[in-house]
């Protein structure tokens, strides 16, 4: 092999390595954004964790929190996560914060129950959906573009890691429960998102 051939060969090896690492970077950026972990928001331990037994899940369900109101700094959002965990665990008696993930106004994603664990956010759908909450009240205003982008990236991440089905159906909470969640203005917007499905599956809740 002449010197030139060696150089060409080396170049193609380098090109392949570059391509591979670029692929890896693109994959990480496009799919698995930074998620603020439970430890980072000082979550209390879950009382119980039930794995979702049939993966990937066919549904993604979007919520707004209504209360707490929007948080627009990392500290405020971590506090919002703690207050929701307190409300869900201590006042409602659930195992943990109900949602799988939440998104704050700055576009940061917070780990709730996380991937592949049954949430408590949409009765009858908890074992076949990923529940994502948008922290705030979106009856009369939209979440920030950063929040919407973050949620879309999170969903891509879920598809790439095999937690969410590639042909998933995107729903607003009100499509499966008699509720105004995720807010009129936001709901209207998500009906234009890829994968939104017009399913209507609200069952009457018996009066107690
Ligand atoms: C839940 O899934 C995790 C991760 O796959 C596994 O380590 C754990 O044993 C599972 N728990 C149960 C109760 O099946
Ligand atoms: C955060 O929200 C408060 C109250 O709505 C507002 O006054 C403030 O400007 C916001 N800060 C940022 C960085 O958006
Ligand atoms: C989810 O739970 C319901 C009961 O609430 C059950 O009928 C259904 O088969 C479960 N689905 C999966 C995928 O485990
Ligand atoms: C949904 O929100 C996006 C981002 O703010 C905006 O570009 C789009 O026009 C909105 N669509 C509707 C139908 O409100």
TrEMBL record:
Originating species: Zootermopsis nevadensis (Dampwood termite)
Stored InterPro entries: Amidase/PGRP_sf, Amidase_domain, Peptidoglycan_recognition, PGRP, PGRP_domain_met/bac
Which SUPFAM superfamilies does the record match to this protein?
A: N-acetylmuramoyl-L-alanine amidase-like
Gene Ontology terms for molecular function:
N-acetylmuramoyl-L-alanine amidase activity; peptidoglycan binding; zinc ion binding
A UniProt-annotated Pfam family: Amidase_2
So what family is this one in? Belongs to the N-acetylmuramoyl-L-alanine amidase 2 family.
- Name a biological process GO annotation: innate immune response
Q: Name the keywords, alphabetized.
A: Disulfide bond, Immunity, Innate immunity, Signal
Give the source's domain of life in one word: Eukaryota
- Disulphide bonds annotated for this chain are 32-157, 71-77
N-acetylmuramoyl-L-alanine amidase domain location: 47-183
What is the designated name of this protein? Peptidoglycan-recognition protein
Q: Which residues does the UniProt record annotate as the domain Peptidoglycan recognition protein family?
A: 33-177
Q: Which residues form the signal peptide?
A: 1-23
